[in-house]
Amino acid sequence: MATIWLLGDQCSWQQPWLKQIDPALDRVVMIEANSRSTWQNYHKQKLVLVYSVMRHFRDELRQAGITVDYRQGERFDEELRAHIREYHVDELRLHMPGDDRMRRKIEQWAGENQACAVQMTEEYGFLVDRSEWPELLPDEKKWQMDSFYRLMRRRFNVLMTEDGKPLGGKWSLDAENRKPPKEGISFPEPEWIAPDEITREVIEEVETDFSDNYGKTAKFFSPVTAKEAERFFEHFVEHRLATFGDYQDAMVAGDPFMSHSMISTSLNMKLLDPLTVIRRVERAYEEGLAPLNAVEGFIRQVLGWREFIRGVYIRRMPSYQDVNALDHQRDLPAFFWTADTQMNCLHESVSAVVNHGYSHHIQRLMVLGNFATLAGIEPKQVSDWFNEMYIDAFDWVVLPNVLGMALYADGGQMSTKPYVSSGNYIDKMSDYCQSCVYNIKEKTGDNACPFHALYWHFLERHGEKFREHPRMKVMYKHLDNRTDETVNAQRTSAARIFERLETGEL
């Protein structure tokens, strides 16, 4: 007789141990640990998601005739010991958690446990096995997502011609994914999932037990079962995928969703299978539902980027969580929790997170990450905020994306150069600047867009590190060609920005 312990993000019938379960002999234990140390300041919608997914899957298991010991308590280890004691467990089976800290705690517990045998196997939900990553990302080579993505395309025969060439002649159509938004553009609404009785009950509990946590639950519409996730995804494919390719890098005020699929939560919670998702989008091209730039752009995110960042996490933890290559030490400003800032791009991006636990990848990278890098915010504070405030956040996702891609805190492991820019990029790719207190056309002074002066300040303070960088030399030529008057004006503007940042007046 064995017990299978399922963690909150492992609620899938495809988990290896579940596929082998004998309902007559084996059982499942699921634990809602609700201590503050476990959940810190997580967004309320994240708590609703995890608890609701768990309770729905508990009921699915029971309806299939499987015994489920569903426990609620302060700590995982206390509840697990109680389960082992009460059910006289001989063997505990579990799946390797994605979170490195949780994995190490479980391995430590398993080593110290004397009550029963512990069997651990790889979890379902990824296309590359954990054991492959040392070979795929060897220490002696520069890691590149592009070469990894090409390997995955070949391995799974995705968007390939019969003679082994990429469909359309190019591996990446990223250059065709960068259209700015047209005036008055709008996108079909996602097929939001209305909370059922179980989810409404969870929402009430979260609002009562975690009333001090950030975020709002009024607009919780995330899928919490595999069937809901499949329906939500299919609606995206049929009605919204077609415009995803052109506008995936664009930003529109009041619409953080646009044509984005928003299935990262369902993928990361294991409600959707990544290869199934990829094959469906591939078929959408064959059926004429979406152009190749939309289909390839979507597949690149799932087959390429999602798998790659997990590999970086596996290869570089636990030291990766403490990287700070640029030695940034400033505290994260309070408006990251409230959206109370006059900078409209930041207000729009943070408001989406407060209301929905979500914003799309360009808001995360080129607004929030860009600002945090230019302002010199301490990387761990930024990654902690992303981990706590996003509904799709998990440690393996957040650390490489935020510390590596957005902040360059790993010194170039994830990206060839810092993803920083002045306000011009945001103005080009959004309509945010049109209704901002700050003037995008002014480069210095109190009314100027703060991104401008912060960008030049960043280049100045990190000149020793980036001056000879092949992709940044041109910007340093511009830096060196400034007049004394321009230098003084930019430095004065940057100083004023940091003052207003400290006083909460930005």
- CATH fold assignment of the largest domain: DNA Cyclobutane Dipyrimidine Photolyase, subunit A, domain 3
Please identify which CATH superfamily of the largest domain we are dealing with: DNA Cyclobutane Dipyrimidine Photolyase, subunit A, domain 3
Number of helical stretches of at least 4 residues: 23
CATH class descriptor name of the largest domain: Mainly Alpha
Low-confidence stretches: none
- Give the class from helix and strand content and strand pairing: mainly alpha
- Strand % is 5-15%
Shape: globular
Overall number of domains: 3
What order do the SSEs take from the amino end to the carboxyl end, as H and E?
EHEHHEHEHEHHHHHHHHHHHHHHHHHH
CATH architecture of the largest domain: Orthogonal Bundle
Cα-based radius of gyration, to the nearest Å: 24 Å
Quaternary structure annotation: single chain
Let me know the largest β-sheet: 5 strands, parallel
Task: Please bin the fraction of helical residues.
Answer: 40-55%
In spatial order, strands of the major sheet run: 3-2-1-4-5
Q: Tell me the total number of β-strands.
A: 5
